Amino acid sequence: MTRTSRGSGIPPVLLVPAAVGLLFLLLPLVGLLARAPWADLGEHLSDPAVLEALRLSLFSAFLATLVCLVLGVPLAWVLARAEFRGLRLVRALITLPLVLPPVVGGVALLLLLGRRGLIGQHLYDWFGISLPFTTAAVVIAEAFVAMPFLVIAVEGALRGADRRYEDAAATLGAGRWLIFRRVTLPLVAPGISAGAVLCFARALGEFGATITFAGNFPGVTRTMPLAVYLSMETNPEAAIVLALVLLFVSVVVLVSLRGRWISGASS
Amino acid sequence: MSSHSRPSPRGLPAVAGLVILAGALGGCGGAEGVEGADVRVFAAASLTDVFTELGQQFESERGTTVEFNFAGSSGLAQQIVEGAPADVLAAASPAAMAQVTDEGRGSGAPTTFARNRLMIAVPAGNPAGVSGLEDLTDEDLTIALCAQEVPCGAASARVFEAAGLVPAPDTFERDVRAALTKVELGEVDAALVYHTDVLAAGDVVEGIGLPEPSEGVNDYPIVLLAGAFNPGGAQEFIDFVLSDTGRATLAEAGFDLP
Question: Where are the coiled-coil regions (chain B) (predicted)?
Answer without folding.
Answer: none
